[in-house]
Design goal:
The complex is a heterodimer of chains A (about 120) and B (about 110). Chain A has about 120 residues and is an all-beta fold. In chain A, about 0% of the residues lie in helices and about 50% in strands. Chain A has no helices and twelve strands. Chain B has strands at about 5, 10-15, 20-25, 30-35, 45-50, 55, 65, 75-80, 85-95, 105, 110-114. The relative contact order of chain B is 0.34. The chains are: A mainly beta (about 120), B mainly beta (about 110).
Chain lengths: ~120, ~110
């Protein structure tokens, strides 16, 4: 079984500053993927970034980076230079690799509010 | 062009009715999913489906059934709607064979059962 824990129900960050959203996971699968999604108030789910368990380097996508610490089973999302449009719910998710295990397991989410 | 589209966006209906939510993807993916997001924003898988197999989350009542007329569509049928079915339902799709298996979501359908 897989489990995702996001311990921060809500976070505040000043515009233009960086913020880290925490995510820890638990799995017995040797190979897996970690994902972050953004859900703005309009409701859609937007894919942000992916990290494979065997990737040597931390994933980066523009202002998003994933701080992957495999030994600690953590996959924190770092948003640099926060913008007002970053205010949203953020979900961490994981999926085991291998046939027959396609679905994502999600955390409960963190609501990020960017303050002008 | 919307990659994963769901209709309707909002659905309000009475208890006991039968309803369907449609989902179409134009990404050429061969695996599609339905997720349910409850009032606390928690997302949970309901089904995953490709042309080889349907995987059903065992907690999903059999009043819910996915129907796939072709690889690009996965519709969700719900019979005898109950108050507890009120939620946001998301369709998603992904390429099965890619290791990343990134899932792309539709905009969601907000179902309200009165």
């Amino acid at each position: 079984a897989q489990k995702i824990t996001q311990t921060q129900p809500g976070m505040f960050v000043q515009e233009k500053e960086a913020v880290t959203l925490d995510c820890t996971y638990d799995t017995s699968d040797p190979s897996y993927g970690l994902f972050w999604y953004k859900q703005p108030s309009s409701g859609e789910m937007i894919f942000l970034i992916y990290q494979g368990s065997y990737d040597q380097q931390n994933a980066t996508e523009g202002r998003y980076s994933l701080n992957f610490q495999k030994a600690r089973k953590s996959a924190n999302l770092v948003i640099s230079a926060s913008q007002l449009g970053d205010s949203a719910m953020y979900f961490c998710a994981m999926r085991a690799h291998g046939a027959g295990s396609y679905q994502l397991t999600f955390g409960k989410g963190t609501k990020l509010s960017v303050i002008p | 062009d919307t990659a994963v589209s769901q209709t309707p966006k909002y659905l309000v209906t009475q208890m006991g009715n039968d309803k369907s939510i449609k989902c179409e993807q134009n990404l050429g993916h061969d695996t599609m999913y339905w997720y349910k997001q409850d009032s606390k924003k928690f997302l949970k898988i309901m089904f995953s489906y490709n042309n080889k197999e349907l995987i059903i989350n065992e907690t999903v009542p059999n009043r819910f059934s996915p129907k796939s007329p072709d690889k690009a569509h996965l519709n969700l049928h719900i019979n005898s709607l109950e108050l507890g079915d009120s939620a946001v339902y998301f369709c998603a799709s992904s390429p099965t064979e890619a290791e990343e298996n990134i899932q792309y979501f539709g905009a969601g359908t907000r179902l309200s059962v009165l």
